[in-house]
Amino acid sequence: MPFIPHTQEDVAAMLNSIGAKSIEDLFDEIPAGLKCGGLEAVPAGEPEMAVTRLMHERAAQDGFYLNFIGAGAYEHHIPAAVWQIVTRGEFYSAYTPYQAEASQGTLQLIYEYQTMMTRLTGLDVSNASLYDGASGLSEAVLMAVRAAKNGSRRVLVPGSLHPRYRAVTEAVVKNQNIELVEIAFDPASGTTLLDALKPFEGQPAAGLVIAQPNFFGALEAVDPLTDWAHRNGMLAVAVVNPMSLALLKPPGQWGSAGADICVGDGQPLGVPMASGGPYFGFMTCKQALARQMPGRIVGRTVDRDGKSGFVLTLQAREQHIRRAKATSNICSNQGLLVAAATIHMALLGAEGLKRVALASHANTRALVEKLCAIPGVSRAFGAPFFHEAVLRVGSEAGEVLRALRAQGILGGYALGRDYPGMEDAILVCATETKTDGDLDRYTQQLERILSRRREAPPCAYKS
Amino acid sequence: MLIFEHSHTGRRAQAQAPQQAGAAGDLPAALLRREAPGLPETSELDVVRHYTRLSQKNFSIDTQFYPLGSCTMKYNPRACNSLAMLPQFLSRHPLADADTGQGFLASMHELQEMLKEVTGMAGVSLAPMAGAQGEFAGVAMIRAYHDARGDSERSEIIVPDAAHGTNPATATMCGYTVREIPTDRQGNVDMEALKAVVGPKTAGLMLTNPSTLGVFEKTIVAIQRIVHEAGGLTYYDGANLNAILGRVRPGDMGFDVIHMNLHKTFSTPHGGGGPGAGPVGVSERLRPFMPIPYVVEDKGFYRWAEEADCPQSIGRMSAFGGNMGVLMRAYVYARMLGREGMHRVADYAALNANYLAVELAKAGFELAFPERRASHEFIVTLKKLKDETGVSAMDFAKRLLDYGYHAPTTYFPLLVPECLLVEPTETESKETLDGFVAAMKAVKQEAEADAELVKSAPHTLPAKRLDDVKAARELDLAWKPA
Predict the structure, then answer these.
(1) Strands, DSSP E only, in A375-415?
(2) Neighboring chain A residues of B154 at a CB cutoff of 8 Å
(3) Rounded Cα–Cα distance for residues A73 and A219 (Å)
(4) Which of B7, B44, B60 to mutate to test the interface with A (most CBs of A within 10 A)?
(5) Which residues lie across from B159 on neighbouring strands?
(6) Is residue A307 domain-shared with residue A406, that is, in the same domain?
(7) Residue A14: its chain B contacts at CB < 8 A?
């Protein structure tokens, strides 16, 4: 029996001890009418060898593509050591470290992770992670509303925020009467201008969300935006790419007082793209907000001998203690992904991460230059960008991307679906994993596709 | 020693970072970082050795028996991990089109179908990333259902006092008031109390069955009738699905919406606290409200159903659709188990739990519900031992660690004083259970003969008893150099 070790003798001896005739007897408290049938829609069990063959066939069917999509999930090199250590049974098959003395490995690792995240983001306190960046933002919004001195249940959200982050946050907070107000972005620069915030001056709101870089890869003027939020009695909530922080100003130093809460997706730190997960959300904040934070937090303490050790702490915020009054219903973190990120950051260090950031940025810049040399292709926005940019290709983006895909290239993310009027816009990203040859291949194929479309436009475009 | 204390200025893992860096000349100076973040400067060997050694300070299923009640710490088959980590699966971008991921999407679709069959629900969405998020999605669907019918006066969710803390916390997150109802002496929902609180304000009831007390709610059919007749919906917390897999289906019990913890029942790893996966299943009337995305099949082509397909959906739970790698592990597990393997899960989980309960009772331990059949878990109460020796459930748990066993869950459920909630799971052998009984007996004898030995445990672990109070009072949440 797969994964069940019992011999017939074991079963007989155990039933004898229990005083039952059969395993069936053990279910005698369940009303007979409720017992189910044979689960015909579940296929028969297969041995490991057959399932291995099946999964290899499915993987081969999906294959490999030359990927230039970013849009919140980024293809970076992951050192071999990262997942070899993460999948050691002692990390992989342990549970939440409730028995601290038997979980010092996981607990110390999380404490190191928390330290790394506070240093990367320039803030005081980190939790042990949340599900992903988007759900992390929803928790940050709830936290801002809890902490708001003005009692407001309204949070300002830029139109240049990742649309999925907006959607997830909306889904999570709407049942609590929290209003998300969208601030339109400037169509020339692709960023949030102070002018767009003017109408909200003097009106109570709990927080202002600031994404850096924003969804378009454009760099926001984070200093004046943070100061504006504080001047108007709001918390500044930063949404960042952690890899970028080896290079860009940390949220704790934005403006004159720093952002108050910082969240983002930790995927660029050693987590494979894997069709969307599992990733992890990180969250850091100022000391004064520590007790408003959701999720697990690890603290350092001492044992009976006065020796340093680690425990889960501030548990009085959490659902298993406070039940209906908890800061959140969350009761897990993305432990394995945190382990991956911690090992990844330890291996790369500040210098290695900065090189990843610079090399990714240099590749995207080179790609943008090459593509913009093709007739009809131009940058959509004027603001400086980091490692991701929006291009207009003068043709329906979905069709262009489909033609590229036929050549084995994933050319970027089509923005038209989220931003009406941008049907010809593609968000492109070339990380450090791309070579000059890769950039040239993309450029040649796009040039060929666009010139063919110019010469023989698709029917809908003919007059 | 922390990784930071292994750091030496100028040391780097050269092979892992790009050789060429490039310049940041085009970026405005005001937006750049002035000082490097203080990350460790170490070699590859430093890092590998440090984290390998840290891992050795953990208890885990792969190294110890881990009878943590309500957590279903069963063996995580290695094939699930290696097959979910095939390079084509790992390298696929979440926003790549469906035609680049038919192998992956077919697997997800089959997983949805299998989960529908084993739970008896009409629809399944894999979107929620953990049990608590599945609960959130479930209660949000209850709310969306009532709202869509213009039945918006319903403001209360009923939760038994034995419930997991996530149940009331979730109800609050969805904007509901929690009405808690007591449990009777047999461990069942108190029917009179239920009848007293149910009414026109009832949006729904959240229930775990078997309950966290380790017993099956025999009156489930009556409970369903009472809530449904009042216009409320019923929610099944799938935390204990391992107890009934292939035996009874939540759909057949009449539940409208459920979540499953695949990191429990479908044996995906707990990973030191995550990631999990908390798919939701719904009855026909809640299908329009399921969280997106979920996989649909159209003439052999698989794709995500998203906003345009599901205008009444409660929305998205994550940026990209869920913890796919966890779902792939669950899929591989389900294919290896197959239909015959599903009911064996509940059969042998129940056999192990009942055997262990009986053996512990024979060894002089007091069961909280001795007259009831154990489900996949059961409760031992150490109240008498505490009164006689001063040794608490926590002390007892710590001493078990010295014997090489992870402790059962302590102080949950909150209703039973000095309790240990014990869940052996189906993957443990009789010898392991016998060894655990012997350790329990030995600790009990120690408590009676030399209470201090137990109260000061553990003695053989990487850390002795840790000071939780100091940790919460003098917060040290990030390392600062001395």
Answers:
(1) 378-379, 389-392, 409-410, 413-414
(2) none
(3) 18
(4) B60
(5) B180
(6) no
(7) 351-352, 355, 430
Q: How confident is the model at residue A462 (pLDDT cuts 50, 70, 90)?
A: very low
Residue B412: CB partners within 8 Å, gap ≥ 6?
Answer: A320, B69, B70, B212, B419, B421
CB nearest B471 (choices: A99, A102, A301): A301
Could you tell me if A314 and A370 lie in one domain? no
Q: Distance between CA atoms of A278 and B136, rounded to whole angstroms? A: 19
For residue A159, the enclosing domain spans 80-343
Cβ neighbours, 10 Å, residue B49: 13
Whether residue A463 is predicted with pLDDT greater than 60 in this model: the reply is: no
The Cα-based distances of A351 to A301, A357, A424, B4, B20 in angstroms read 31, 10, 38, 15, 12
CATH class entry, domain B79-337: alpha beta
CATH of the domain at A424: 3.90.1150.10
Q: A405 — contact with chain B (CB < 8 Å)? A: yes
Question: What's the confidence (pLDDT) of residue A458?
Answer: 74
Q: Which of A19, A109, A323 sits opposite B169 (nearest CB)?
A: A323
pLDDT at residue A29 in the model:
93
Indicate yes or no: CB of B33 within 8 angstroms of CB of A247: yes
Do the domain assignments include residue A56? no
Residues of B in contact with A345 (CB under 8 A): 39-40
In degrees, rounded to 5, the angle at the alpha carbon of residue A280 between the alpha carbons of residues A228 and A73 is 80
Q: What is the CATH number of the domain that holds A184?
A: 3.40.640.10
Give domain limits for chain B: 79-337, 340-468
Query: What CA–CA distance (Å, rounded) separates B292 from B309?
Result: 9
Which of A301, A319, A343 terminates a domain? The answer is A343
Q: Which of B95, B320, B335 sits opposite A46 (nearest CB)?
A: B335
Is any Cβ of chain B less than 8 angstroms from the Cβ of A366? no
Do A435 and A299 share a structural domain? no
How far apart CA B447 and CA B222 sit, in angstroms, is 44
Specify the DSSP element, H or E, that contains A224: helix A222-231
**3-state secondary structure (DSSP) of residue B305:** strand
pLDDT digits (tens, 9 = 90+) for A146-190: 999 889 999 999 999 999 999 999 999 999 999 999 999 999 999
DSSP A137-175: HHHHHHHHHHH-TT---EEEEETTS-HHHHHHHHHHHGG
Helix (H, G, I), strand (E, B) or coil at A30: coil
Q: Which of A343, A369, A387 is the last residue of a domain?
A: A343
Cα B477 to Cα B36: distance, rounded to the nearest angstrom = 21
How close B66 gets to chain A, by Cα (Å)?
Answer: 9
* Gap between the Cα atoms of B406 and B397, Å rounded: 8
Say whether A134 and B95 touch across the interface (CB within 8 A). Answer: no
pLDDT tens, residue by residue, B459-480: 999 999 999 999 999 999 999 9
DSSP state of A176: G
User: pTM, whole model, 2 decimals?
Assistant: 0.97
What is the second-level CATH architecture of the domain B340-468?
Answer: Alpha-Beta Complex (3.90)
Per-residue pLDDT of A279-328, as tens digits, reads: 999 999 999 999 999 999 999 999 999 999 999 999 887 777 788 788 78
Please check whether residues A357 and A394 belong to one and the same domain: yes
User: A169 contacts in B (CB within 8 Å)?
Assistant: none
Name which residue leads in pLDDT, A136 or B186: A136
Q: Which long-range contacts (CB under 8 A, 24 or more apart) does B4-11 make?
A: B4/A112, B4/A115, B4/B38, B4/B40, B4/B479, B4/B481, B6/B40, B6/B42, B6/B46, B6/B50, B7/B40, B7/B41, B7/B42, B8/B41, B8/B42, B9/B41, B10/B41, B11/B41, B11/B42, B11/B43, B11/B46
Instruction: State the complex-level ipTM.
Output: 0.97
**Do both A152 and A255 map to the same domain?**
yes
Token pair 């149910």 in the structure block, residue: B198
Is pLDDT above 90 for B20?
no
